[in-house]
Amino acid sequence: MKRDPGFKNMFRNAPNLICVCTPAGGGGLLDAGLLGENVMLAAQALGLGTCCLGGPVRFLKSNADARFFMERLEIPADYELCYIIAVGYPDEQPDARPRDASKVKFVK
């Protein structure tokens, strides 16, 4: 945060957030992951950028100063916040990094 002069918040300055919740006790994690992937792909197709964030969830769940934010989400008691997807228009469009073919294994 100190090295980034444009830093505004822990959500990477995104103007919109999608909070993905799962049933308390761990159910639905696979479905939540698939949902997030589809949301992020759809956003990309619309020219939006996304970032899947788990760190802020840990902070929001464990920090008493963040309780007001969690209360505003009005998550039902039998659900818990799993992860957050930050959504907005990207500041940049970097080229994809080259793939390391030595890490790919084909099984016949």
Model description:
The termini are far apart. This protein is an alpha+beta fold and 108 residues long. The model has no long low-confidence stretch (mean pLDDT 90). It has helices at residues 29-45, 55-62, 67-73, and strands at residues 16-23, 49-53, 79-88. The protein has a 3-stranded antiparallel beta sheet with strand order 1-3-2, sandwiched between helices. It is built from 3 helices and 3 strands; from the N terminus they run βαβααβ.
Summed up:
The chain has about 110 residues and is an alpha+beta fold.
Largest sheet: 3 strands, antiparallel
Spatial strand order of the main sheet = 1-3-2
Strand content: 15-25%
Instruction: Give the helix level as a range of percent.
Output: 25-40%
Secondary-structure element sequence? EHEHHE
Q: Mean pLDDT, nearest integer? A: 90
Secondary structure layout plus pairing:
Layout lengths: L15 E8 L5 H17 L3 E5 L1 H8 L4 H7 L5 E10 L20
Antiparallel strand pairs: 1-3, 2-3
